[in-house]
Amino acid sequence: MNQEKDWLSPGLQAQLVRVIAASFGGVDARAYLTKYFLADGPFARTLRLYFAEGSCVGYCLLTFTRRELGGKSLVVIGASAAFLPEYRKGGRTLGFSLTRAFGYWLRHPFERLYYADTMLSPAMYRAIVKHTAIAYPSPHSPEPDAATAGLFETFNPDGRISPHYKALCLVDTGRFTAYDETALNALKSSAKPEIACYCRLNPDFHSGVALFVIIPVSMKQLLRSAWKFCRAWF
């Protein structure tokens, strides 16, 4: 569903608040809903809902906001996704996020477009970075160049620098994904490159620190990501 006036009914808002409260610690679920789903700012939002037995058990929200960089306009895509604990499965939101992001780019090919947002969990980071060829930071981009560091300064000016990545890629959010001790230990000891990279860059993710990630949406991204996909499968 796409953003329009009064786009979320009171009943659906109540179900989303339930999902948010069960997914994140350190947040006021109603205030979170208002900020990301209802407040002015984005010129467009698109939302996918996941249901089980007639109730909402998860969502993926994308927001589209105009920004200025070097005197030129660009579009920044932000995202929020959450599921009730028993419905969390890796990669469930990836297809939706990629198709909507590239769908916007195909309709507006001359606009500069970036996904740029905080990622609260290693699993969320892996789901995106595993399938995109160009992402900052990533396991394959150990140090940012000047242009990339400038993007972080523009998109995340109040952030802080990671000891292992010299750009403003950390954000003190005060909220965190609610992991139990077993899941947390499994993430911290994971050998998966994306999970290990996230934990190295942001070891305090379980206590309210998020990793800010920038992914350009462009023809170069599309071609290189398609090549990456083909190499993985063939």
Report on the structure:
The protein has one domain (10-233): 3-Layer(aba) Sandwich (Aminopeptidase), CATH 3.40.630. It is built from 8 helices and 9 strands. The protein has helices at 10-23, 29-38, 94-107, 122-129, 146-155, 181-188, 193-201, 219-233, and strands at residues 24-25, 44-52, 55-69, 72-83, 112-119, 160-162, 165-172, 176-177, 209-216. The chain has a 7-stranded mixed beta sheet with strand order 2-3-4-5-9-7-6, with helices on both faces. A two-stranded antiparallel sheet has the order 1-8. A hairpin with a 2-residue loop joins strand 6 and strand 7. Helix 1 crosses helix 2 (29-38) and helix 4 (122-129) packs across helix 7. The longest helix is centred in the last third of the chain and has 15 residues, at 219-233. The radius of gyration is 17 Å and the shape is globular.
Summarize the structure.
Helix content is about 40%, strand content about 30%. It has helices spanning about 10-25, 30-40, 95-105, 120-130, 145-155, 180-190, 195-200, 220-234; strands spanning about 25, 45-50, 55-70, 70-85, 110-120, 160, 165-170, 175, 210-215.
- What would the CATH topology be? Aminopeptidase
List how many beta strands DSSP finds: 9
Q: Assess the beta-strand content as a share of residues.
A: 25-35%
Q: Indicate the overall shape.
A: globular
**Measured distance between first and last alpha carbons:** 35 Å
| Biggest beta sheet summary | 7 strands, mixed
Share of helix, binned: 25-40%
Order of helices and strands: HEHEEEHEHHEEEHHEH
Instruction: State the helix count.
Output: 8
Helix vs. strand class: alpha+beta
